[in-house]
Structures are given as C-alpha cells and as structure tokens.
Amino acid sequence: MANTGFYGAGFPYRDFGKLSGKLIVLEGTDGVGRSTQVALLRHWLEEEGYAVADTGLTRSELTGPGLDAAKSGHTLGPITMSLFYAADFADRLENKIIPALQAGFIVLSDRYFYSMIARDSVRGVEKSWSRALYGIALRPHLILYLQASVPSLVQRLIHGRGLNYWESGMDLHLADNFYDSFVTYQTAIIKELEELAREYNFVNINADRDPMEIFEDLKRPIRLLLHNRLLKSARPY
Amino acid sequence: MLKPNDTKGKLIVVEGIDGSGKSTQIDLLYKWLLSKGYSVYFSEWNSSALVKSTTKVAKKTQSFTPATFSILHCTDFADRWENSIYPLLKAGVIVLADRYAFTAFARDVARGNDPQWVRDMYSFAIKPDAALYFRVPLEIAVERITGSRAKLKYYEAGMDLGLSDSYEDSFKLFQGKILGEYDKMVDEFGLTMIDGTLQVKTQQKKVRALIRRILEGFEGLPNPDKQPIAVDNPRAKASKKGAK
Hints:
The complex is a heterodimer of chains A (237) and B (244). With 237 residues, chain A is of the alpha/beta class. Chain A has 8 helices and 5 strands. The radius of gyration of chain A is 18 Å and the shape is globular. With 244 residues, chain B is an alpha/beta fold. Chain B has one domain (10-219): P-loop containing nucleotide triphosphate hydrolases (Rossmann fold, 3-Layer(aba) Sandwich), CATH 3.40.50.300. Classes of the chains: A alpha/beta (237), B alpha/beta (244). At the A-B interface, helix 2, helix 3 and helix 5 of A face helix 2, helix 3, helix 5 and helix 9 of B.
C-alpha cells in the first residue's frame, strides 16, 4: 500500500501508513506573492486550530549548500540542475512533508515540482523525462495556482526586491538586459504553468489583485477541503 | 530507455560488482587505445566535483534515503554527461566509463527503488557501443574487497538497507542483490559478459579483440601526439571558486 497517492511509484521501499494531514500547494511564478500568501494562510489556519508546517524549494539540508554553490557559479547543465532540484525535493518530501502529514499537519508548500518542470522545459529538458522523474511525488490535496500577468509581475518586482538574474532567465541569453529577458522568460514559464494547470488540475486564482483579495479567494477552496472541521468558521463560504 | 549513439564518438563502459576487476581492465584498455593514437577520455562514476561536496556531507551524516542516493548519483552522472562525456562523444572521442547507468540500475534497484523509475531517470544518456560486464562469483569478489581493503564504508556495505548489523555480512548480502540485478540486465541491455576469474592478461585479450571489432572503420578525432585529454570539467572548477 506504500504507493497509493503518488503520481508514480513513490518510495516503494517504505510504507508510510496513513497520511492523515493535508498537503496544500501554492504554485505560481516568481514575484507573484506566494510567500505573502503562505504567511497569511498559515496564520489563518493556526487560528482555526490546525497544526501547520510550511516548506519551499531548495530548503533541504541535503542539497541546499550544493545548490547555492551551483547557482553562484551558474555552471550546471539543464539536466544536472533539474536533478539537483529533484534530490532536494525528494529529501524534503520524505523527511519533512510526509512525516508532517503522518502527524496530521496541514503542509503548505510554497511551490511543488510543477514549477521545476516548467523551468526545465523552458531550458529544453524533455517533459516526459521530468514527469517520470517526479513519479516519486505525492499528489497534493489541493494545488492553488496564483495566476498573474507579466506586467503585474514587473510592477510588483520593480517596487519590491528587484529583477534578478535567475528570475529573469538571464542564463538563457534571451536578451541583453534584465527587463526584456524577464518578460520573454516569464511569458514562457507562464505558458508552461498554464499547460501544467490543466494537466494536474490546479485551482486558478487571479493574482493580479490586492493581496487580501487573493487571500480571500485562496481560503475558499481550503475551506471546502477541510469543510466542517474548521473551528471558527462554521460553514464553507 | 537509453538513446542510440548518434555521435561521431564511441562509448565503451565497464560494469560489475565491487572486486570484479573492471577498473584494472579499463585502465589497460585506456592505455592501449591512447598508444594507438585515438583520442580517448576516461570518466569515473561518482567523480563530479560539483556534486561531491553534497554527497560527502550526506555520506558522513548517513542522511541518504534510497531515492536521494539514486537522484544524487544521477546528478553526478548528468554533470559529467553534460559537461564532458556528451560533448566529447560529439567531437569524435572514444569515451571510456568506469561504471555507467547500469551501476545505478543494479544498486539503486537493490536499494528498493522502482526499476522503471531509475531507468527513466537515465534515459537522456546513450546506449554504449560496448558494455562489458565483468562477472565474478560473489565469494571471490567479496574476498578481493574485504581482503585488500581496511574497512568497508557505510553505504558501500549497504548498511542503510538494514540487512545485517555486521558490515561484512551486510556487504555480502548487498553485493548478492546487486549481482542479481546485473545478471538480469545481460539480456535487457545486451551486456557483453567477461569472466572476471580469468587471468588479467587473458581478460584483456578478450576485451581488445572486442573493441577492435567495434572500432573497425572508425576514424574519430585525430590525436597525433598520443596525448591524454587533460580537460577535466573546467566549468566545475570555476564554480568551486564561485562558491567561496
């Protein structure tokens, strides 16, 4: 029974037993405001009496330092990069996410492997290969997709943390400056994510709005998922 | 599945359990091909500088799971593949690999990973022109390893599988599982089996006869000075600097 709930074979050498928690994923491209929403959701769910754990990409103790080093030298080929991230993903899934789910936590994941497939695909990595690789992944209970237009991302980033090398896809040599590169790169990433949204049944949330409005939209499907187990809000909606 | 070789180069790999004598054979083969004036490149399993820092930490803290062990070894392979093996094959070099994807198919599956998942992970790589499988009975291989080396290492002995509390017993059981996986691959991938109990010289004679056939009519990248290819992944070195 170890394989139920995974996209592929999962981790066939382990039986995780019953996972009583819920895995909720926030997907969306760079600068879309995921971390703000994760913080808001966490606070809200904890107020409702849930134990919440959050996790993001490249936070694993196993590959974190290696990935940082690789990025600072930007010398990795696309398949190597992809595998490095996959190792990190597997480590977090097996050692953090699944144990938290076993303990009944709600796990909020700031992105999941879909972002990685999108990013790799734009860099020429075969999609069928990526999908097979993530056969280890657990199917989330809910995938919330923050959908934003490129102009709104630009506005948010320029008035926020700025455009950076990786988020602009400068490694792809699409343009000679961050802005043009960002626009081309993020347009391509969003196109991939839209395709994945259909394939993996994302719940689309319009992110071209005020953070509190987005937050209210995110709460709705989560309430449905947890239905009458919420302490404070008696009914969904 | 592995891709057909569409490059100008030739890919020759050796496989077998620890103590099968494959490294000795590929080393002799390397020197012979170089003396013949071919451009030859040698690549070794688990040797990418970039990945090493990660695997070193994980090995020390014993924090690998079968999945992360498998993915990180493939990362190491991919780094060598993208930065040296594939471009050199394209240029018409003979690439010799001491262990290849089959090592992963044997070890990672022996560790409990899904066989198809591991195979799919390596599907970006090319099917070798020659895959030499040095087969020795388990007892002989174990004797060679435990007799010649001081101490078995944790993952080498397969201690993570919990087969036995004794390193030596665990090593034997683990190698036995790996041997079973290799034997299954002989037909699946058309591995050429070589009896690893024969004398070193006898084995090398067989290896050369086989490689001679494979290289019939092969031109490849000229190497008039019979020089080894010194370039060993300069990009990985650059990144090491960047990390500091």
